[in-house]
Fold this sequence. Notes:
The chain is α/β, with parallel strands linked by helices. It is 39% helix and 19% strand. The protein is built from 26 helices and 29 strands. The two termini are 50 Å apart.
Amino acid sequence: MIDFRHLATARESLTLAGCVAGYTPWLMADVARAAKGRAVFVAADDASARAMLDAVTYFAPELDTIYFPAWDCLPYDRASPSMRVSSDRLAALAALSRPTDKAQLLVTTVNAMLQRTLKPARIADLTAEIKPGARIDRDRLAAMLTANGYVRTDTVFEAGEYAVRGGLLDLFAAGDSHALRLDFFGDEIETVRRFDPATQRTVETAKGFTLLPVNEVLLDEATIKAFRAGYLAAFGAAATGDPLYEAMSDGRRLAGMEHWLPLFEPGLATLFDYLGDGAVVVREAGADQAAEARLEAIADYFDNRQAALSAKKGSYRPLPTDALYLSRDEWTGLLAGAKAHLTSPFPVPDGTRRTIDCETTQPRDFTPERTAQSNVYEAVKGHIDDLREAKQRIILASYSNGSRERLSGLLSDHGVTKIASADSWQEALGIAADGRVALTVVPLDHGFSQRDVAVLTEQDMLGDRLVRRRRSAKKADAFMAELAMLTPGDLLVHKDHGIGKYEGLFAVDIGASKDTRAPHDCVMLSYGGGDKLYVPVENIDVLSRYGSESEGVALDKLGGVAWQARKSRMKERIREIAGELMATAAARALREADAAVPDPQGYAEFADRFPYSETDDQLKAIDDVMTDLASGRPMDRLVCGDVGFGKTEVALRAAYAAALSGQQVAIVCPTTLLARQHFAGFRDRFAGLPVEVRQLSRLVTAKEAADTRERLADGTIDIVVG
């Protein structure tokens, strides 16, 4: 068992070996409880960070959890980070600046750690406490909100927006879960109320709130002056004609301005400056590789901007990479100074003193049973019986209350006895200690075995989540939320009557007599010729927004034939398109193609080079693609998945099958950076095989490119990445 206090006092960075993914949230909960300062978890990407946040609150609901995300835009981009991300970052920095007596866990990512940000003293200067009774000029407050990055709108819906309406000022402050409504009497704030932006209805009265900026770039006189001086010093007097320089000089915000943050705020800090003494930093397995890839990407984006730089007005003038991002040496040095430990799913190597054992193992894998299409529930029952004999505490994790109930019923039907539901981790441990099977709801993809505790998830057992497909939210529900954002004059489409003009939501008395009449909410539409149509809100699913430019659009007439004629023409066009698609599919099915069937032994060895365990979805995609390649018919398949879900491995297996069958393979990438990364990956995976892999992009010389094209033409290159 890990002595978590030892982590806080360790004089060097340690590797936490045998720490499987499902166990990491439990580990971090215990680390946070034992740490003298705050605990920090550095995830490889945003998905891992959010999964940690979801799971750790189950294992330790008493923890004060803070999430610090990275910008959701590329380095040296012309786009700004989203307002939500910026406000989350500043709220996290403000929370880290305040002392706390609670056990605290900071969850962040490699990308966020590698980027510089505002100093703690600067965050303190930008933070203001606002309470009822405070005296502040409403116009001055509005000007301050604009300087702090808030956007003025007619109605507040999103974080970072504010609206002024008479004696009210609405705003959605950074770090707050609801929007706020400030009621002024003269220069005094009478009340502060929280409200739901979707309904604009008050939720509760607030005693006050902390006002934070929603952008790391503060546009006031001092920062504008600093930017102008820094921009000219960096790029010379010729840069005064740049749109960025002109916008900042006028005090106007411009998309992408945050990438010049070092000019607005000379002397930036890093997230390490906020951690304080005694912080225990734990990096996720794969974080170091993610950091290396991020540093390479930053350098690539900078080089591309530099290569495109010209003396022409409006050129993108990038700052050096170390102005906004950490260098490789800085990153390594800060990790060493913070004694940042690393989790690893692999067991403890023999003879090492810098590694301690988490004493966890992967959960039982039921893939063989699923592959053989045998009864998985029977296998699960047998495994539970084995765990009971070994005196293990058994906990089964579901994703929702509904799936927990269904799993309980299915296991009971297959002979599993003594099953009980648990609503907390401590309750689950107590139930499992009595020899019963504890069923709980916790967002874990995979379980773990740790000493006398065995945790299995739905995905471990079934290969997927045992959840019914959610029906799509009714169009009426979605449209009611959208209705709040409509203004009179907007165009709507009624499925039976065509295009009309939205006039507002009205209460209409409905009933056969005076005694039975009652006001009923209806959407009023006006049509050509002055006709009005009232649509009851319960029938709102017949309406949709007009999806094109509304200028010059003619309204339909109630009872007219024009709308029905347009619908009829569109249906006919859809039939034509369907016919074309069917003809294309039929022609493709009749064509023949060279079958690509790899040698089974060689293919198995190539697949073994994949350093991870394939997921069931990934294996299915690989099997489907390999079946297509071996069919002797043209393949027509699209493989979809988020970043990091394993699409490249599917392409590698397909490339192996094609190249070893005598065909040439082209890997086409959307960016130069991806082409370089995929070339490196394909070259490494095909090393030692009789396969020639080359690259075609701006990063190769003209001579290399010409040679590659010639060798592609004569067939001596098997795979090209470009």
